[in-house]
Amino acid sequence: MSILHANIQDVFNEYGVQIMSPHYMMDPASEKIVKPEDWHRAPAKK
Q1: Burial zone of 12 (CB within 10 Å; 0-12 exposed, 13-18 middle, 19+ buried)
Q2: What is the model's pTM?
Q3: How far apart are CA 31 and CA 16, in angstroms?
Q4: pLDDT digits (tens, 9 = 90+) for 2-17
Q5: Rounded to an integer, what distance in angstroms lies between the CA atom of residue 14 and that of residue 11?
Q6: What is the pLDDT of residues 6-46, one digit of tens each?
C-alpha cells in the first residue's frame, strides 16, 4: 500500500496536479508540487 501511495504522489507531481485535503478551503498562494529532482532528497532514499 505504501508503494502504491508513493506512485500516486509521483504521478500527480509529474503532471503538476496538487493532491488536495478533504479539508480543502481555498487555493494556496503558490502550488505545492514537488519537482522530480527533489523527490529523493535526503533523508529519502530511492
Answers
A1: middle
A2: 0.49
A3: 9
A4: 899 888 888 888 888 8
A5: 5
A6: 888 888 888 888 777 777 777 777 777 778 888 777 776 66
Q: If you search the block for the grid coordinates 509521483, which residue do you land on?
A: 10
| Rounded CA separation 5/38 (Å) | 17
Torsion, Cα of 20, 7, 2, 44 (10° steps): -90
Cα(13)–Cα(19) distance, integer angstroms: 9
| Cell numbers given for 43 | 533523508
Q: Are 13 and 34 in contact (CB under 8 A)?
A: yes
At 41, list the grid cell: 532528497
